[in-house]
Amino acid sequence: MSQLKINRDPRVEPKFQSYPDEIRGKLEALRDLILEVADETEGVTEILETLKWGEPSYLVKNGSTLRMDWKPQNPGQYAMYFQCTSQLVPTFKVVYGDKFRYEGTRALLFDLEEKIPRQELKDCIQLALNYHKLKHLPLLGK
Known about the structure:
Layout: E1 5-8, H1 12-18, H2 21-40, E2 46-52, E3 55-59, E4 66-70, E5 77-82, H3 88-96, E6 101-103, E7 107-111, H4 118-129, H5 131-134
Parallel strand pairs: 1-2
Antiparallel strand pairs: 2-3, 3-4, 4-5, 5-7, 6-7
């Protein structure tokens, strides 16, 4: 039984509903994965689902904010965003190499038809959720 407390900002659901159907399903799958990993992560008992910069965002104590979005100017892709000043995406590049496509130091990019490397993405999410406990470690402990 899940012990994770999810605090939901009421503005988030209308944001999900505003996405085209095909995109909404992809982003809802990312949301489900974030919540699954949060529930499985020791020490994470509460998560805030809110909007930051108009994008669905997830925050936990001792973690770094995770965001996701789809932009009409790039209709064939969507992204998971990480704090660009963190060492998260640079670490992902070293550890996972070409398993992902990257946007600088801030995002993992996904094509609509792409099969996401689920376990590797779960690892990335878990690193973000524990970032402030791990940021002093080489490669964030990976």
